Amino acid sequence: MADTNASSSGANCLEKLKSYLRTQKGFILAAEIVLSLIVLICYAASTYGGYSAVAICEMIFAIVFFGIFMMELDKQIQVVNWVWSDLFRAGIGAVLYIITSLICIIGGSQDGARIAGGVFGLIAGLVFAYDTYVIFLQIKSTRQHTAASTDDRV
């Protein structure tokens, strides 16, 4: 009986994963995770792997947010404003990836892995920037613009 519950729970989780990957947000987060892993591998293969901290942190943050949104924990945990937290995560990730990637591309003249990591980092920076833009549009569309009341009766 315990095996049946465990397998149905695992199937439910796998079904949530498949359905969340089909959404726009799930696809963007999955792309961020894969690109961060590629950048991490390139920086690890480089002679100077000091820039791998950005890839590690952003990959972990993307995995955490992917899990939270996939399991719909953002609807259960109301203490944190998940949309704004995701906006800051994606915005900071975009800026950090673009800065570190430009530094690696400009300064890595003899290190092919560092240049490859920089190129993939620029692509990751653009994906993070697109994620920031999509989140911003989501925040903008959910905001209600109501006029202030001019009625003296309060």
Automatic annotation (TrEMBL):
It is found in: Membrane. GO terms for cellular component: membrane. InterPro entries: Marvel (IPR008253), MARVEL-CKLF_proteins (IPR050578). Residues 20-140 form the MARVEL domain. May play a role in cell differentiation in the intestinal epithelium. PANTHER family: MARVEL-CONTAINING POTENTIAL LIPID RAFT-ASSOCIATED PROTEIN, PROTEOLIPID PROTEIN 2. This is Proteolipid protein 2. It comes from Seriola lalandi dorsalis.
